[in-house]
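Replying to the earlier thread about multi-chain prediction with a worked example.

Input:
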Amino acid sequence: MVYLRERSEDERGVLSSPLVIVLIPGSQTAYKGVRYFPLLRFPRGKLLQFQAFDESYVERLRSGDFRTQEHFVAYFSELIQLKLRTRLHSPQAIEDVRQETFVRVLAALRTPGGIRHPERLGPFVNSICNNVLLEHYRANPNGPSIDDDPETDFADPVIDILGAVAARQMEQKVREILDEMAERDRRILRAVFLEELDKDEVCREFGVDRDYLRVLLHRAKQSFKSIYLKSIERTPPVGKQS
Amino acid sequence: MDHKDAVRLKATERYLLNELDPDLLDQFEEHLFDCQECALDVRAGAMFVEQSKNVLTETPQSAPTPVMPSTQKNWLSWLRPAVAVPVMALLLAVVAYQNLMEWPAIKSASALPEIVPYATMNIATRGATVPVIAAKPGQNFSLLVDVPPDGDFSSYIADLYNPAGKIEWSLAIPAAAVANDSLCVRVPGTNRPGGVYVLALRGIRRESNGPSEIGRHSFELRLQ
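Result:
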C-alpha cells in the first residue's frame, strides 16, 4: 500500500516536503476505499516552466526535493486534468485518478529500475494515468454516482496574490482578443465553448467549415500565448536556486 | 506522432475541440506528455477557452444578425409597388375572365352529348389496312382495342407513338378495365397534328419483373 501522511516534527529538517510517501512492501495498492491526503497544493499557472526531464530531474524527484515535486505535480496535473476532462465527468473522479497516478509514479521512482528512461518520464506518467483510468472504469461501470455533482466547479483552492494578478492580466488579454474579433467570430466561440452546441450545427448556422473553427482558435491562442508565457515565467525554475 | 505531425494536423486545436478520433487522441496525448512545446500550446489554448467562457458569460449577447440578402441589385429588386401593383391587377383580370367567361363555357360544353370519332383495332394482329380517324383539329377521339384473352396479366400499359416515332405518353391500365377482351382509350386531340400513330400494348404478368409487349397497331388521324 502507498499513502501519504503528514511529516512529523522529528522528520522535518533536511527535506522540506510537508508530506512523505510511505511504502508498505509486499502489498497491493487498493484503489477503491483508500483515502489519500491531498497531494501538494499548487497555484495555478505557476511552476509550469520548461524543465528537462532527465536523470537529474528524476533523481531530485526520487529524493523528495520539494521544488521538483512541486513542479512535477503542477506540470502534469494540468495535462492530466485536460486528458480526463472528456473521459470523466465527476471532479471527484478526476481528482482520484490524478492522485492515484502521482502516487504510482512516485512509488515507481523508488522502486529499483522503476523508471528506466528518465527522458521518457512524460509518456510514463501518461501510461500510468491510462492504467489508473482503466481501473477506474472497471471499478465504476455505471459511471458517476448520483452523489457526484458534475456542476461543481473544480477551482484551485490556493490563490496567491501574484497568481491573482496574473489571472487578471490573462483575463484582460482575453477580453482584448475577443474585442478585436468580428462579432460573428465571437458568437461562434460562444456557441462552441459556452453554449456547447454541436459544432457541425454551429458551422452550418454561421456558414463556416470546421477548419475555420480551428484557425479561429489557433489565432486566438497564439495571441494569448505571449501573456500566458509571461505568467508562468515569473518564478525561477527548479534547480537554479542556490 | 512527432511534433511535426502534431503541427501539421493542427492537433492542439483538434484536441481542444474534441475532434480527434480515439487512435489519434492516444497518439497525441502520448506526444503531449513528452513534448513541452505542445504541452504549452495546449495549456495556453485551454486557458484561453476557460477565460473566454468567463468573458463571454459577462458580455450580453447582441441580437443575432439575420442573414439578410443584399439590398443591392438582386432578382427581387424589381418587386417594387410601381411594378407589382399593375402586374397584380393584370393577373386579377385574367383570373376573373377565366372564371367568369371561359370556365362556364367549358363546363357547359362538357355537359352536352357529342359524337366522338373512333377506330377499332385488334392489337394482336397486324392488319394490312390502317384504320382512319377523321376528326376536327383539337377534337378528342377514341380507340377501341381488342385485347387477346390472357388471364395471366395483372395490368397493362398502353403507349402512344406520334408520327415521328417518339413515344408521346404511356397509360397504366388495370386488368379490371379490360371488359369482354376490349379496351376503350380516349385520346386528347389538343395540339395534335394529323398523321400515322401507333398504339402499343404491354402486359405485366403476376410474378414477373417487367412488362412484355402484347402487340401494336397503327392508325391514321386525318384532320378536317
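Chain B has two domains: 3-58, 118-223.

Feel free to reuse this layout for your own posts.
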